[in-house]
Amino acid sequence: MKSTGEPARLRPLALLQFLGRAMRNGWFWTGVPLMALSFYALLILLSWEPISLVIPASALSYVVGTLGAKYILGRTCERPRGGRASCWFARGVALVAAG
Length: 99
Prior knowledge:
Blueprint: H1 12-23, H2 26-48, H3 51-58, H4 60-71, H5 83-98
Helix pairs in contact: 3-5
């Protein structure tokens, strides 16, 4: 978003200019196939495992995204408010996975 900017107004011409800038961004075209890959990986996992395991386990993508932002992009990540809740959630996923 930093390189593309934001639309000045929600008018058709401004939106078309914004979409044109987004289409010329290489990261946009890198992200589209990666999102498709993520979707198809979710479908494959759903065909192998029950939904009660796959959906909570797929929430780990938020953890991976946060770690990537911290260590790859060098962003500062504050301690989450729901830290304890996240630990209990992870324990629940492990319990469902175990049996």
